[in-house]
Design goal:
Bound molecules: 2-amino-2-deoxy-6-O-phosphono-alpha-D-glucopyranose
Number of helices: 7
Strand order of the largest sheet: 5-3-2-6-9-10-1-11
Oligomer: single chain
């Protein structure tokens, strides 16, 4: 895993947008894997700015989002469908039909997940996957557990994730307890992966990822260490507990 440590959240967001820009300019048919959460918002703002300045054209691009809460409609302000429209899609020229976010209202999430993976495959696979990380090391909604999903489909959320994500909801009881998520296999098939992390709240997960020199399903992000083109871009706070001597990675 390559590692880029930045001075600030802004710099992390700009560096990430620089890589997306470089890849999009080289391939206007790019298939992007997109994430929700507060982490990528700065990156999305950068992409919007660069689009409005005429630098970035998304008209031939496609995107696939990682996950959605089960039970929330696309119109629900807490849904990831809503988040993506609000934070990115409404402000760039990615055609609606090219922007895919899992449907939280599917009545058969297992089969739905299979068709989502099929659609990704038919689109040529994800060229560049953006990921955040949960405080517990989850990626997308693949929560620490003895076994992780390989394909896309339903998962049950952990208490910690429900607690962490309750800040976006009016109350904790309104946070859905399950989600449809891209599985670890679906994520690992991306040609290139950028894992973003910022702030002290992620320092423990990043330290575990880089210091333990182990791969474990109890830290789902650790599977990314096996990917041939994964880069961690994090600010110095998220990196603050890493013991550089023990680090299983290379600093860029
Ligand atoms: C959610 C999402 C993840 C995201 C994580 C971190 O649980 N399913 O994809 O990485 O939150 O969120 P934040 O960026 O707000 O810390």
């Amino acid at each position: 895993m390559k590692i880029i440590v930045t001075e600030s959240y802004e710099e992390m967001s700009k560096k990430t947008a620089d890589i997306i820009e470089e890849e999009l300019l080289a391939n206007d048919n790019i298939v992007l894997g997109l994430a929700t959460g507060s982490t990528p918002i700065g990156t999305y703002n950068e992409l919007i700015r660069r689009h409005l300045e005429g630098i970035l054209d998304f008209s031939n691009a496609k995107s696939f989002n990682l996950d959605e809460y089960i039970g929330l409609s696309a119109e629900d302000v807490n849904s990831y469908n809503y988040f993506m429209k609000d934070k990115l899609f409404d402000h760039i020229n990615l055609p609606n039909e090219n922007a895919h976010v899992p449907d939280g209202l599917t009545d058969d999430p297992e089969n739905y997940g299979d068709s989502y993976d099929k659609l990704i495959k038919e689109s040529g696979g994800i060229d560049l996957q953006i990921l955040g990380i949960g405080a517990n090391g989850h990626i997308a909604f693949n929560e620490p557990a003895e076994e992780l999903r390989y394909t896309t489909g339903p998962v049950v959320l952990t208490e910690q994730t429900i607690e962490d994500n309750s800040r976006f909801f009016e109350s904790k009881d309104l946070v859905p307890t399950s989600a449809v998520t891209m599985g670890m296999g679906s994520i690992m098939k991306a040609k290139r992966i950028l894992l973003l992390a910022n702030g002290l709240g992620k320092a423990d997960a990043i330290a575990q990822l880089l210091n333990s020199k182990k791969i474990t399903t109890f830290l789902p992000a650790s599977l990314l260490l096996l990917h041939s083109d994964a880069t961690l871009i994090c600010d110095k706070e998220a990196f603050s507990q890493v013991n550089i001597e023990d680090m299983a990675g290379e600093l860029a």
